[in-house]
Amino acid sequence: MLVSAAPYFPEQARAAMRQFTPDNRSEAEWVQMRLWHRHGDEQIRKIWEQMHALKDSHDDMNFTPNHLSMIMARTLIVHGDKDPLYPVALALEMYSAIPHANLWVVPNGGHGPIFGDMSESFADSAIRFLRSARQEEFK
Prior knowledge:
Radius of gyration: 17 Å
Number of domains: 2
């Protein structure tokens, strides 16, 4: 499963990375991150520093359609149609290139559209997908 994934970092993601530093995060963002990451503020700071550093990395991921076409596993791509980092066109590129791909575009979904209101729908869909993939494996 690929959730809010991209085959490469587009400029809009790099622009967000340039602005993304631990020093300019809101208190609400710190509170949310503390709920998700239980190893303290140092861990959270390192995560944000890594995200910021990616802005300058140009030897990062670059999965061409040719590379993606080598993925033989059944793949579920989940993408929000309002993702501010990765446009939905990138999900379509991956869907077109991966031979056994399924695509779920979440209406009004942002980056990480599997949380909040969509978490239950995602869990149900993911379980159905994984069960169907397992059944295919034994045919």
